[in-house]
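S.,

Sequence below, as promised.
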Amino acid sequence: MPTTSSRLVSRYSRHLLFSVAASCSLHAIAPAQESSPAEAASTAQEQVSFAEIIDRQFGKGVAPETNALAKIYEAIGPRPEGTFQGEEYFRRLGIPVPSDNGSYYQEFGQGLAGEASRTALEAYGKAMNGLWTEKQYPDLAKWLQENEKLLQIVNEGTLRQNWYYPVVQKTEDGKPTPLIALLLPHVQKMRGLARAFLVRANLHLANNEPEKAWADLQTCHRLGRLTAKGPTLIDFLVGVAINSIATHGELRLLSETKLTEQQIDKFLGDLAKLPQMPQVSVNINVTERMMFNDSISLMRDGHLNVSELTGDSPSEKSPFEQPILRALIDWDVVLKRGNEAYDELVAILEMKDVAKRRDKLAEFDQKWTAIRSDFTTTSLMKEYLRTGSASSVVTERMADAMIALLTPALRGVENAQLRCLQTNENLMLAMQLAKFKVRTGSYPDTLADLEKELSIKVSPDLCSGAPMHYTKTETGYVLYSVGTNGIDEGGKSWNDPPLNSSGVTGDDNVVRMPLPKEN
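The prediction came back faster than expected:
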């Protein structure tokens, strides 16, 4: 099934955001004059739709021949997750509609059922988490061979610099579909492709072909950086997840392979050439802001019921409730308040100080979560009828509720971004440590020794600003950042045993070398 938010009430729940995890300017969105996203939103109805504002922002200057996704569609076909987006979608991509009769990439084991499906999934999981051979999993090796040409197309696509897909707002029964119900017809397919490259890299490592493994992992890494350039938070979070897949494979390569100093230098150079991860503040400032404005405008015009967002139970709904609310509320005030909230969010996300940013996001999240928990449209109507509250009071409460409902769980998103950046730093440092070992015969006693031998400067922990934690062990080392909570938990991460009897796990971002063997 395609990724969608058609259950509007859960559009920004933590479950949705974490079940998946920009280089463009934040100006010149409206065609008539340069403006901020908030200003563009206030005049969008006179110029372009909210969907067009998103589309122009993320598609600016992208030609089909520079668009990685335009190439990748050759491998994934017109219905990568089962839904056809329509001819207009592909016309705006600038490519012919892929044939329904073509041969396209399918996940390993797709179409199997029962015990056969369980066996395939078990084999795939083991092949993702460790080295494997054709003899161990012949069906998996055959699947990779059958998909070799398609994976090559994906690799060629990731060598392109841009990533764009059109934001198509469709109409159903004469009503525009909300942008928060936007279908993302390919995003989960990208994660599946990333896993395929990891599986093949682990096969190459088992066959003592580290250069081939590295090439697949670099394709995976590029795919993650590109996917994260998409307009939505889900694009960004899936890009972060793919980045983690690539990094895990690259650390395994370091753990399982005896590399030369020349190979390590090449790998370090390749990592340095990767495009930077985009800033999630762009998704918030443009796409999330436009989704808010679109939802409020649709409610004002009677195309979207407030209860579809609030989650009021069917028994509480009244046929008179929605028209009365629409008449009572000053929707321009709701729009203004919402855009002010997005201004605040963007300002927080652009703070340079990690601790201050973390605290401010926590304050923002706690404030709006408390407001949301005490709101339904029925309770608002009852309060109005009981007290005779002024329209301005109802408007303010509605504005608060819509901001609480439609602004995402930003602490989690910010943590995903920060963890991704620190994971990349950890990988680069692990490469330098491997280089030190090749040159001297052992890992350094301290990071200061590493700096002196290789004439480098080790970056501080992004999460605390303090030096990275490093301990040489009998067989290797433990390297860690204190993690996104800013607390040193002694090198304990989420996949270690709980820290206490309550089941709380650690948050440290850890590299153990050699890597622990997967179960």
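Confidence is low (pLDDT under 50) at residues 1-34, 314-320.

Coffee later?
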